[in-house]
């Protein structure tokens, strides 16, 4: 059974979103997604300064099984990326909700968060 923290929001494309409370969010992929992918061997990080659009591809995760596009769950600008994933992509498997965030995004519109699923809603999509 996948871990689904209650304090996060979720996209049905398996990204999690942490509202940092300052107009920014932290984004990663869910435990369910990393489990489906298997051992992650590479993460293509977005460029800082990139404008992202909700539901459009902004990153890529490659595993021993497959390559999977990662979709922006909100509209905004990438303000920071997790460079630790360049040297340790396996963090996605080991700690998908802690050390393995992919990017921090400055929201264009805070209302985007209202369009995301809560933990119960996400749990229902993967049941």
Shape assignment:
globular
* Major sheet: 6 strands, antiparallel
Structural domain tally: 1
SSE pattern: EEEHEEEEEHHEH
Radius of gyration: 13 Å
CATH topology: OB fold (Dihydrolipoamide Acetyltransferase, E2P)
Contiguous runs where pLDDT drops below 50 for at least 5 residues: none
Mean pLDDT: 97
Number of strands: 9
Question: Please, how many helices?
Answer: 4
Sheet-strand content, in percent, reads 25-35%
Spatial order of the strands forming the largest sheet: 1-2-3-9-8-5
How helix-rich are the residues, as a percent range?
10-25%
What is the name of the CATH architecture? Answer: Beta Barrel
Which secondary-structure class do the elements indicate? Answer: alpha+beta
Find the CATH superfamily: RNA polymerase II/Efflux pump adaptor protein, barrel-sandwich hybrid domain
Q: Gap between N and C termini, in Å?
A: 9 Å
Protein name: Glycine cleavage system H protein
Family: Belongs to the GcvH family.
GO biological process, one term: glycine decarboxylation via glycine cleavage system
Pfam families: GCV_H
Describe this structure in words.
- With 127 residues, this protein is of the alpha+beta class.
- It has helices spanning 31-37, 84-87, 91-94, 119-126; strands at residues 9-10, 15-19, 24-29, 40-44, 51-52, 57-63, 67-71, 76-81, 103-107.
- A 6-stranded antiparallel sheet has the order 1-2-3-9-8-5. It has a 3-stranded antiparallel sheet with strand order 4-6-7.
- Strand 6 (57-63) and strand 7 form a beta hairpin.
- The chain starts with 8 loop residues before the first strand and ends with a helix.
């Amino acid at each position: 059974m996948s871990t689904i923290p209650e304090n996060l929001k979720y996209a049905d494309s398996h990204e999690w979103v942490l509202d940092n409370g300052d107009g920014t969010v932290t984004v990663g992929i869910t435990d369910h997604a990393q489990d489906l992918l298997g051992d992650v061997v590479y993460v293509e990080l977005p460029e800082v300064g990139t404008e992202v659009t909700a539901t459009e591809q902004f990153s890529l995760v490659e595993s021993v099984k497959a390559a999977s596009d990662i979709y922006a769950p909100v509209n905004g600008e990438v303000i920071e990326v997790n460079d630790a994933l360049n040297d340790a992509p396996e963090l996605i498997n080991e700690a998908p909700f802690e050390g393995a965030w992919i990017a921090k995004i400055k929201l264009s519109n805070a209302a985007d968060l209202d369009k995301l699923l809560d933990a119960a809603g996400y749990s229902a999509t993967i049941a």
